[in-house]
Amino acid sequence: MNAYLNLAVVGPGALGCLLAARLHLAGACRVRLVDHDAGRAATLNRQGIILEGPAAPSASPLPIPVTADYADTAGCSAVIFCVKSLTLPQALADAVPFADPATPFITFTNGISHLEQLCRLRGRCLPVPGICTAGATLLAPGRVRPGGPGTLTMGHVDSASSHWAHNLADPLHQISQTFRQAGFDTRISTNIQRELWHKLLVNVGINALTVVHDCPNGRLLEIPAARQQMALAVNEAAAVAEASGIALGMDPLAMVEEVCRRTATNISSMLQDIRQHRATEIMAINGEIVRRAHQLGMTAPANEELTKAIKQRHPKQ
C-alpha cells in the first residue's frame, strides 16, 4: 500500500466504480468513492462494489468506502471526477472548499466546456483535465461490467504548467504510476487541450449516431446513412476546432472510424443513458460544436440535426 497517495473518486457510475475497484484491487493507494446521494452511498457501503463479466479481475464485493460528505476529500492526494458534464460544475463547487492549491482535480468528463470552469479554479486547486477510453457498463448501482482496455491521459490545464510533464516532481507522475499499477495504460500529455478535442471528435462521430441507429459502435460503419452522417458531423467539428486555433494534427474521420473498429461491440455511454432513461451529454458533445460554431459565425447543420434528434428522445437535456 502506498502510504502517500490517498485518492477520492467522485461519482459511483460505471467509470468511477471501475477506477476505484481496480485501484483497490492493486493495493496501489487508499481510495474512496464520493456520491452526492447519501442513500445510495449507504447502500454501496453495505453492498460493496462488484465487477462482473469475463474481464472482471474479481467477482467478490469490494469494501471500498463510499461517502456523501465532500469534507472527506480534505487532505486527499488527488480528487478524480468521474461524473457527467451535466453534474461536473456542482461536483467541483462542492469539492473545492476542501482542497488546497496543490490538490490535483482530475476530470474524466466528456466534452471541453468544463475547461473554462477548471481554469477559474486555479489557485484553489491544481486543474488537470483528463481523458479515459476504458469501457465500462453500469449494470446496477455499484455493479459494473468492465469493457475493453483503454488509456488514461491527463495533463495540466494550461501551457504554463505543461512543462511539468517531464519533471519528476510533478504530482501527476506518482498518480499516473498508481494508475499503471492498477492496470491502466496511463500517460501525461503536454497538450491536453488538443487531446480533449480529439476525444470530442470521437464522441461527435459516434455517440449520438449509436442512439439514432440503436446499435453498438462498430455497426455504424456498416450502415451507409450512418457513415455519411458521421463524416458530416466530424468534418464540421474539425472545422470548428481549427477555427478555434486547435491544430488537430491528424485525419479526424480516419481516427473516428478506427475507434469504431476498436470498440465495435461497445455500447456508447449515450446509448446506455437513453436505454436507462437518463439525461445524456448531447449538449456537451454535438451541442457544444453547434454553440461554438455559432460563436465563430459558422454553421454545423449535421451536429444541429443530431442534437435535436437526441433531445427529442429525452427532452430533459
Give the topology, please:
Layout: E1 6-10, H1 14-26, E2 30-34, H2 38-47, E3 50-51, E4 66-67, E5 78-81, H3 88-95, E6 104-108, H4 114-120, E7 126-132, E8 136-140, E9 143-146, E10 151-154, H5 159-162, H6 171-181, E11 185-188, H7 192-212, H8 224-243, H9 252-262, H10 269-275, H11 286-295, H12 301-313
Parallel strand pairs: 1-2, 1-5, 2-4, 3-9, 5-6, 6-7, 10-11
Antiparallel strand pairs: 7-10, 8-9
Helix pairs in contact: 7-8, 7-9, 7-10, 7-12, 8-11, 11-12
Account of the 3D structure:
With 317 residues, this protein is of the alpha/beta class. The protein has 2 domains: 6-190, NAD(P)-binding Rossmann-like Domain (Rossmann fold); 194-313, N-(1-d-carboxylethyl)-l-norvaline Dehydrogenase, domain 2 (Orthogonal Bundle), CATH 1.10.1040.10. Helices cover 43% and strands 15% of the residues. It has 12 helices and 11 strands. The strands form 2 sheets. An 8-stranded mixed β-sheet has the order 4-2-1-5-6-7-10-11, with helices on both faces. Strands 3-9-8 form a 3-stranded mixed β-sheet, covered by helices on one side. It is globular.
